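Subject: Predicted fold for Pyridoxamine 5'-phosphate oxidase N-terminal domain-containing protein, 129 residues

User T.R. writes:
Posting the sequence so we have a shared reference for the thread.
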Amino acid sequence: MDETGVARLAAEKYVLVTTYRKDGRAVATPVWVVRDGNALGIWTVADSGKVKRIRNRGDVLVGPCDLRGNPTGEPVPGTAVICSAEDTAAYRTLLRSKYGILGSLTMLGSRLRRGDGGTVGIRITLTES
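User M.O. replies:
I've generated the structure tokens; pasting them so everyone works from the same file.
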């Protein structure tokens, strides 16, 4: 995927990330997104369903959407990997910067509820479509 595709998706407020269950059924979830060089970064609860699904199967679809997860553009294929604690911390910083006060309050609330280990970053590299 060319860099303009990454930049376009990273500029969105929300993206719809579609992961796959073991039986192949797709599960789409709207999430915040940041740019991580030539990839996208998202952040989520460490024991969430999407993290479990990505551990089993890393291929995903990513596309722009609204707050409720209604697609606003075509999805593109990608490969998702769970980030290290260091990369997850970097994603938290990027999210606070991009989403302002709402991002900061969300990160603070999450840290108070779950601690730093309760969330993980997910790096999504877009693949050729």
